[in-house]
Amino acid sequence: MSNAVTTIETASAEPIVHARGLRKHFGKTEVLHGLDFDIPPGRIYGLIGHNGAGKTTTLNALLGLTSAEGTIRVLGKDPFAHRAELMENVAFISDVASLPRFLRVRELFALLTNIHPNFDQQKARTFLEGTDVKMEAKIKQLSKGMIAQLHLAVVMAIDAKLLVLDEPTLGLDITYRKRFYRRLLEDYMTEERTLLITTHQVDEIEFMLSDIMFIRDGDLVLHMQMETVSGKYAQLIVGPDHLEAARALRPIYEETRFGQTAMVFDGVDRSELEALGQVSTPTLSDLFVALMQRTPSNSGAGQ
Ligand SMILES: Nc1ncnc2c1ncn2[C@@H]1O[C@H](COP(=O)(O)OP(=O)(O)OP(=O)(O)O)[C@@H](O)[C@H]1O
C-alpha cells in the first residue's frame, strides 16, 4: 500500500524505541509492511488500530518475542538478539500473559525477587495494600480484576524504562479499568519512563496519552503528538443550510448523527469552519473512525 504516514516529529532525545522498515511475514503473508517510527523517552504512546491491524505483532517485535525484518532498537539494543538483557529495563503486560496460577502471591513475589534484578518486593506489597489481593491468596483463586491488580503491582514494582501494555484491561469492568489507568499515571509514570499501550477502548486512555500512532492493515497511517491534533484536525457539526458549503472544504469524513451532519477536516482553517457550524477538536475515537474509513478499498492485510 502507498499510504503516506502523517508524522509530526517529536523530541530529539535518543529514542527509547527506534524502528525502520519493520516488516513481518507469517508464511507468505506480510502483516507489517515496513513501519518507521521513533518513541522518545518520557512519552505515553497509544498504538491504535482495528482487530488484526498488527498492534500485537508490532509490540512482540519490539519485545523480542518474534523475529522481524528491518532495524529495531529498544534502549539501543536489538530486542530479538538481546531479549534477556533488555527485559531488565522493560516491563510488559498483555491479555495473554499469565502469572503462575499454582503460586500464592507471596511466593510469586519471592520468585520475582530472585529472577528480576529490578523488582522491588516492598513496592509491590505496598501497592497491594490498597486492593483486595492478599499476600496469602492463591493466584488461581483471584478474580480477573484482582489478577489485573496483581499484574499492575508487579509491573509497578519493576524499575523499568519502558512499559508495554497490550490490552491490559481486557475483561475488566469500567471501575477497575479507570483505577488501573489512574494508578499507572499517578504512581508509576515519570519523565524517565516511557509507556506504550494498545487498547480498543481509546476514549478511556485519551486523557493520558502524549502521542498516538494509528496502524491500519500493517501500515502506520498517523503518528503525532496529542497536542498537535487540534492544530491539524477539526470536527464540524453542520446543519442542512451550510452542508454544501462545508462539503466544498473537502472533509475527510462525514457522518449523519440525529439529523445533523458531523464532518472531520484535515488542515482547514477553523475560522472558515466556524462560519458554518459548531467546531471542536475530534476525540480520538472520532479521528480513528475518520482516518480508518477514509480509503476502505485499501483494507486487507498482506497486500
Ligand atoms: N502466529 C501467527 N500466525 C499467522 N498469522 C498471524 C499470527 N499472529 C498474528 N497473525 C496475523 O497477523 C495480523 C496482525 O495480527 P495482530 O495480532 O498483530 O493484530 P492486532 O492489531 O493486535 O489485533 P487485535 O486488536 O485483534 O488483537 C492478523 O492478520 C493476524 O491474523
TrEMBL record:
Task: Identify the Gene3D superfamilies for this entry.
Answer: P-loop containing nucleotide triphosphate hydrolases (3.40.50.300)
Alphabetized SUPFAM superfamilies for the sequence? P-loop containing nucleoside triphosphate hydrolases
Q: Identify the keywords attached in UniProt to this record, alphabetized.
A: ATP-binding, Nucleotide-binding
| Segment forming the signal sequence | none
Q: Which domain of life is it from?
A: Bacteria
GO function terms (MF aspect): ATP binding; ATP hydrolysis activity
Question: Mind telling me which SMART domains this protein's record contains?
Answer: AAA
In terms of InterPro entries, this protein maps to:
AAA+_ATPase, ABC_transporter-like_ATP-bd, ABC_Transporter_VariousFunc, P-loop_NTPase
This one is known as ABC transporter ATP-binding protein
